[in-house]
Target: NAD-dependent epimerase/dehydratase family protein
Amino acid sequence: MEKKRFLITGGCGFIGTQVLRELLETPHEIFVIDDLSSGEWTSTSETRVALKVCDIRSEEATKYILEVSPHYVIHLAAQVDVPTSMARQDIDADTNIMGTINMLLACKKIANFERFIFASSAAVYGNSETSLLTELSDAKPRSPYGMSKLVCEQYLSLNKTMDDFPYCALRFANVYGKKNRLGKDVISCFGNKLKNQEAPILFGSGEQTRDFIFVDDVATALILATEIKKSGIYNIATNEQTSINEVFQHVSNILQISITPKRMAPRLGDVYNSCLSNQKFKDATGWEPKYTLQEGLERMYNLITT
Ligand SMILES: NC(=O)c1ccc[n+]([C@@H]2O[C@H](COP(=O)([O-])OP(=O)(O)OC[C@H]3O[C@@H](n4cnc5c(N)ncnc54)[C@H](O)[C@@H]3O)[C@@H](O)[C@H]2O)c1
Model:
């Protein structure tokens, strides 16, 4: 395997940490930019990984990218919280849009640059009319967060058209797995509340669906995407639709804790159904999700450690 330089923005976050774990199994050189606003520098990050603590919007980050001159950038750093994006559109857009533009402009100056992998989201689709969303389905975000991801995809596509800038944007479904900090996603919230013997909060009827993908499958996809020769957008998902009520049952069964959830009104900006087709990425790379929801949850809660 030829040794390459990988730079991961947001490499200390939830998905980034797993990307580092997988890259550490390879001979590649690994560099990280993270401002540690929510991420943590953990022991798994090891000495083989060089960390630059700075903001992706800063000149310091630009300088570092030029100094490292990576072959690949996996761009994960972002404002990731939908409710925060509703409350502070300005902060969300500044971090997600301006931060991404800053990173892509730096990469354009690198002579041997091979590909920019962008962490996009199923949030770009908004409320789906179709049962299985493909990359050609309408993108109508229902939150500033989803809009920021869509705008970044369009900047990447524009730069491909203008200057042949090589990129892949991966639209992740709902990613779950073990987190270093208290997770705000639905699976982490259910688990945390149940473990504290408190009633988990369930928004809306609970019949709304999501496509849940295990973090290890997402990390594998991010690294594989560097091998794709064609720029474009790819869904990273399981093709499976699971209702929030079903997820609640799964988590309760795995933890063997039974508490009646507290039901509340649906949240502003939340989409009703979300299920994505992963066919395009499968065809391009041969990737398949390895873990079912049950298997992913068992790993998340340490019932299986191998
Ligand atoms: N987790 C999911 O379900 C999911 C779904 C779809 C898309 N995504 C996208 O995947 C990416 C990674 O998500 P995650 O769940 O690992 O999030 P995370 O919050 O765990 O990680 C983000 C990392 O970026 C860092 N960061 C934030 N703002 C920064 C800035 N301005 N400069 C430098 N570093 C900064 C944080 O410290 C953190 O380490 C994000 O772009 C997110 O939008 C995540």
About this structure: DSSP finds ten helices and 13 strands in the chain. The longest strand covers residues 115-121. The mean pLDDT is 93. The pocket of nicotinamide-adenine-dinucleotide is lined by residues 10, 12-16, 33-39, 55-57, 76-78, 80, 95, 99, 119, 121, 172, 174-175, 185 (CB under 6 Å).
